[in-house]
Amino acid sequence: MKNALVTGGSRGIGKAISLALAQQGCYVLINYRSNHAEAEKVLDEIKENGGSAELLPFDVSSSSQVNEILGGWMQKNEKYIDILVNNAGITADNLMVFMSDDEWNKVINTNQNSFFYVTREVLEGMVVSKFGRIINVVSLSGQKGHPGQVNYSASKGAIMAATKSLSMEVGKKKITVNCVAPGFIKTDMTEQIDEKSWKKMIPLNRFGEAKEVASVVSFLASDGASYITGETIAVNGGMYS
Ligand code: NAP
Fold this sequence. Notes:
Elements: E1 3-6, H1 12-23, E2 27-30, H2 36-48, E3 52-55, H3 63-77, E4 83-86, H4 101-129, E5 132-137, H5 140-144, H6 150-170, E6 175-182, H7 195-198, H8 210-221, E7 232-235
Parallel strand pairs: 1-2, 1-4, 2-3, 4-5, 5-6, 6-7
Helix pairs in contact: 1-2, 1-8, 3-4, 4-6
The structure holds NADP nicotinamide-adenine-dinucleotide phosphate (NAP).
């Protein structure tokens, strides 16, 4: 049984990924920051479906929490993480001319620095076991840009670039590193966005479902994706192309 860590695995896209990886036979570590009730619901649903999982709350933007809690879990259980999904992310939109230091820093810390802290923590185990799947959830906003999201686009674009470099560092150890770039997906994050007016811009004429992103993440985590690395797969209803 492979151990899979899903950051932000308690709501939205991360929840769908946690459920899909459990369905695929993984032992899922469901990470989240503060909403314990939603995380419990995901754990219960996995167990009801016959899967196995546990909750592992920590703040992905805190280097020390990542080291103490995630590092501590691996040490205590004498286990490695085989599959890492860097999914936790936030927005703090504003036009750049009005953007505060706090809006910039919290998005960069949560979306970008977290990639460094969490991935570094699990890499040694993957190198030793000569297996790993690292999947980073980025965004259409990091590929084509979006007004009001200079901070968010910067954080997601950085992860796509880092993915290419890391894939070159660890390929020989049979570790693949890829990104999935969603467009508009129905979650709490997009609750305030009017689907009716935006869907005209989307060739498939609708927002996506979280499970439509999760199925691509599941594929990248599977044996079938063993020769794909350094890649970004868009899941955006055709909006980018
Ligand atoms: P969401 O519904 O707002 O869920 C966010 C998840 O991340 C929650 O589980 C939350 O935990 C967790 N989280 C946030 N900050 C965290 C932190 N510092 N440490 C640990 N966990 C943290 O978001 P979503 O829409 O599913 O988005 C998931 C990912 O997809 C993000 O990276 C986002 O940028 C990306 N994305 C989303 C869309 C979209 O249309 N929805 C489009 C493109 C890309 P708590 O509940 O405890 O806060």
